[in-house]
Amino acid sequence: xxxxxxxxxxxxxxxxxxxxxxxxxxxxxxxxxxxxxxxxxxxxxxxxxxxxxxxxxxxxxxxxxxxxxxxxxxxxxxxxxxxxxxxxxxxxxxxxxxxxxxxxxxx
Length: 107
What we know:
InterPro entries: YggL_50S_bp. It comes from Allorhodopirellula heiligendammensis. This is DUF469 domain-containing protein. Pfam families: YggL_50S_bp. By secondary structure, the chain is an alpha+beta fold. The protein has three helices and five strands, in the order αβαββαββ. It has helices spanning 3-9, 31-47, 74-86, and strands at residues 17-25, 51-56, 59-65, 90-95, 99-100. Strands 1, 2, 3, 4 and 5 form a five-stranded antiparallel β-sheet that branches.
């Protein structure tokens, strides 16, 4: 396959990896504390050059990926998990394995 098509189809050297992320916020948090933790989470994601697609209230789930046309790495995965585990108000944080963001999903 030609390079142009591999790029267009995000294959080979143009593959983009991501990982699934789930976590829960402590039910004892009030609205202001929950908002503060959410803002801190978003700041951490953005400061590491990542993107998060998803959301939640008490239970969050979504996909973490790299910047535009970029991949998340195993190091990114560990950084996000470490940050979540350092916050006592975050419960049950889990990150799935790296997978192809475009073709790594079952139907």
